[in-house]
Amino acid sequence: MLTWKKNNNTMHTPLVARCLRGLEAVVAAEVHGSGLGAVTDLRHREVHFRSHRPTPPLRTADDVFLLAAQRPDIGTTRQRLHELTELAHLADAHHLLSLRHSATASARGITGIDVSASYLGRRTFTRYDAEDVVGQALARRLGVPYHSRRAGTAPPPGCCGWRLTLDGTRATLMLRVDDRPLHRRAYKQRTIPGTLHPPLAAAMAVLADIRPDHAVLDPCCGAGTLLIEAALAQPDARFHGFDLSADAVTAARANAGELPVAIRRSDAGRLPLPDDSVDRVLCNPPWGTQVHARGLLATAPSRWWTELRRVLTPEGTAVLLLPDREDLTTAIRHHFTPVHMQRLRLSGTQPFLVHLALTAAGRSRASRQLLEGEGPVRSGPGPGAGRGGGEHRRLQRQHPRTSSNRH
């Protein structure tokens, strides 16, 4: 049975943050850097830690759970499924629910429970088989109904969510702290195809190291998720998004609300920005299967990289989500060099999270363009312009930020 230790009248609770595969170190760094507690273990898609806060505000995690019980994994055959009931008996379920109730105002009396399971490797049973074994045992202990996910129906209101994982070594049972997963953001009022997973967007903003005076650009902003997560992390920077889709622009503006994020319609192959005007680029470019390049990029995708190099300052950097290694090769060919690269698992794909900086050749080429006037400098409304268009200004560092964002 797990215990909760008191130290100087502070409850140190064992918690588990679930995340995308590949972001475990980022989540652990957020736990440590925010002073939320001590990281005790990193596992497949999990960060285990102890915290004095029962509901830590983690933005890079998909969800946070109270650690309920652990035992050895049951193996790959269904003959041992019944052994998972031990987890329900090991868990101090009533104490866990009491912690959840005290931590979350919305977590009142429960009307039932549901269980979501996942496992690594091939098994002769399904996730629903494991869920039902544990869920029914928990329901009997707590005296409440069990809602099975086998039929594909959503749990009724008032159900509290439990999580079961089998990683080949351990079987772990956890209780979700809040009524809804952390990755479901309140600002997400509208969505479009290709919308980026919010915790991943938050992780990309962390890697970008955005400062208060920075101009931050997403040239293919979609529903605005990347810029919104970045603005929530660093509200004193200036954030500017462009998208060729009118639906995307509408969605991004609705999601951004009153955040300092300016959104306008434009082609990412011809950005209405001056040269050397952007400090950070955050983007999930339209090279994937859900969203395809349009406008100038449909016939000349290399223009995307040319524009990035043009608008970035010599010391500027870009944090991008690229679908495969060929895109990284293209970036290097356009005088970018990878500072950091991480393979992720996202909705059945394995994209690369890449942090890029300009090479010396890229920086000198940008300088020559400025000195020699190579190529036209776009003089349309820069990142100083508000949402509704407004005054056309050349981007200047000293301009105050304006409040006016597929990801």
TrEMBL record:
Pfam name, any one: UPF0020
PROSITE patterns in the cross-refs: N6_MTASE
Origin: domain of life: Bacteria
Family annotation (CDD domains): AdoMet_MTases
InterPro entries assigned: DNA_methylase_N6_adenine_CS (IPR002052), RlmKL-like_Mtase (IPR000241), SAM-dependent_MTases_sf (IPR029063)
Matches recorded under Gene3D superfamilies: Vaccinia Virus protein VP39
Chain intervals with Basic residues compositional bias: 394-407
Domain Ribosomal RNA large subunit methyltransferase K/L-like methyltransferase: 185-335
Disordered: annotated span: 367-407
Record's protein name: Ribosomal RNA large subunit methyltransferase K/L-like methyltransferase domain-containing protein
Species this protein is from: Streptomyces vastus
